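Q: Could you fold this chain for me?
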Amino acid sequence: MSLATGLAARKKAAREAAFLRRELAHRSAGAQAIHLTRWLAERPGVPVAGYMPMRTEIDPLPAMEAAARHSRVGVPVIDGAGQPLRFREWRPGCTTERGHFGAHVPVDGDWMVPEIVVVPLVAFDRRGHRLGYGGGFYDRTLEGLRAAGPVIAVGFAFAAQEAEEIPVEGTDQRLDLIVTEAGIIRPD
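A: Sure. Below is the predicted structure, expressed as structure tokens.
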């Protein structure tokens, strides 16, 4: 087995185990976004990109709604495979439509460049590595944003999504912070 094949198999196994942990956490979730809401409130005026939760993802919408009172908030829009994400401004109650992969996106609104990106994930470790869905959208996007200026990547997940170690490759972008329903983790 080649090194690349072995890494792909490890990522696949890690992804499957993490989906199961996330499903169990989602069923018992209470006040999911309280720590994210507080952290964003300490950064008024800084443009934020959140995401529209799908399936069993932890729900950032309460934090996004609170942030929209003092900052521009956007959500990701997928233009196509292999492309970085773009962010369209979102406001509570705005009209949305289904985008790629079923995520809802605003029907209209200005494009924005966030300085904080709240990143959904399948699993994370304490070193700031994340396991996504495998499309590389956030990795490409964070790489481009970081090349243009400062940006904070905030992984948002259930505490149960923590893994001992995430298999990583050269294109994977690290998280600057991880926020769960249980608290805030600053990567090692």
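A (continued): The chain has one domain: 3-185.
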